[in-house]
Amino acid sequence: MDFDGDGRLDLISGSYDPGELYLFRGSGRGAFEAPEAIKDKAGRPILKVPDQEDRVESFGSCTTLIDWDDDKDLDILVGTFDGMIFLRRNEGTRTKPAYATANEWVKLGDKPLRVPGGEHANPVTADWDGDELWDIVTGAANGGVYWYRNAGTPGQPAFEAPVTLVAKHEGLGYSELLEPGKEPKPGIRSQVAVTDYDGDGKLDVLLGDFGTYLHVRTDLKPEEARTFEELRRKESEATKFLRDCMERLRAKFKEDLKGILQSRWSTPENSAKWQAAYRAMQESPDYKRHMEEYNRLQKEGLQYVDRTASGKRLGDDPAVAHGYVWLFRRK
Amino acid sequence: MMAIHRAGIAAALFAFGGLARAQESVPYDVAHDEPRGVATDSFHAPARLSAADGVIDSGPSWGHAGPWVEDVDGDGRRDLVVGDFSGLFRLYRNEGTNQEPRYAAAVNLKAGDADAKVPIY
Q1: CB contact under 8 A, A122 and B120
Q2: Residue B18: inside a domain, yes or no?
Q3: Nearest CA to CA, how far is B50 from chain A (Å)?
Q4: Which residues, at least 6 apart from B93, have a Cβ–Cβ distance to it below 8 Å?
Q5: Residues spanned by the domain of B72
Q6: Could you read off the pLDDT of A8-67 as tens digits, one per residue?
Q7: What's the pTM?
Q8: Residue B59 covered by a domain
């Protein structure tokens, strides 16, 4: 992407913590300069919460450039961790960008656009239906890919409700079983590129993913496989109980903190309250019992998993992470 | 899960997914969009891309592959760049054609004298 119209390819990227946007200026032939944070015209980094006090407030950004208002310069679109998209209008020029200091939230009708599943918007723009208006295509935490058709006019984009291009991933994405000889499937947290990959005149989708697999041993006897399956069933019951407990705790805090700025959450009182409630949950007999059961089942399951499969693990977790790039070639 | 109680409350709650942010000018309590239709039959069966050294996999960097297709080295062939959870960008140089890309093993994209990198933590 040529950020400043100098004819050289630049690289721009969002980031995770604290979510600033970065520009790597191209110096030609694949060479880039050291990164600089992209700033607005007041010299502040472009963030979801520009005046944030807590660095988690703008976590996880994903960005692209598009001439939103058809004034021949490039504006910035940013996808957020919680699935929304904001615009920073370029009030300068194509070669000397000067970005607005405030976010304009991309809307779907009257409400802010929020990707299905509600997390991890990573928008790119492309004229998916060939009607000469660019559309938004985005991945999501659920692994799906969604097309927001632009039904506006040049300079005044307006979006229709999304159409699913790639179905969401079925399952958690974490610790899924990969049976010997079986092919993986596209995972969660899809990040997309839309391009005519094979030069056939049709736009294709590249989908980058994430997930962790438990690689099942190749030499399991039928009765071992059955035992393992039963163990997995019990484990998922215990997991569900533990997750539901956490969900309830979270919902309670959501209620308690309603109306309070996120930057004010981390007071010593709130943190102490959260820690006390979390410990109380952990120490309740039901929670303890399910946690012990979960730990026991996990440990017992290890004998059925190939722990020599290469890859990255978290601590003792036998599941191995992956991040594939899937080509969805358009028919 | 165990580390969460030690984290700040905002980080702890955030880790469990998007609490309402009652921040002026930042939307909160926004409903998720519901798809109005599906066009999942638009594609041939998906296939994983490979490079000279096998299937492209950012698993060792905790996944989260983010692909980008551009002619990075200016040889007229579009290359593949894949970002991941290390904050680095892996460059897969296209040694084939634009119609049938064939990727070399990855090298880290450089910026200045160092690897190009964005902050993750």
Answers
A1: no
A2: no
A3: 8
A4: B72, B73, B79, B103, B104, B107
A5: 50-115
A6: 999 999 999 999 999 999 998 889 999 999 999 999 999 999 988 888 889 999 999 999
A7: 0.89
A8: yes
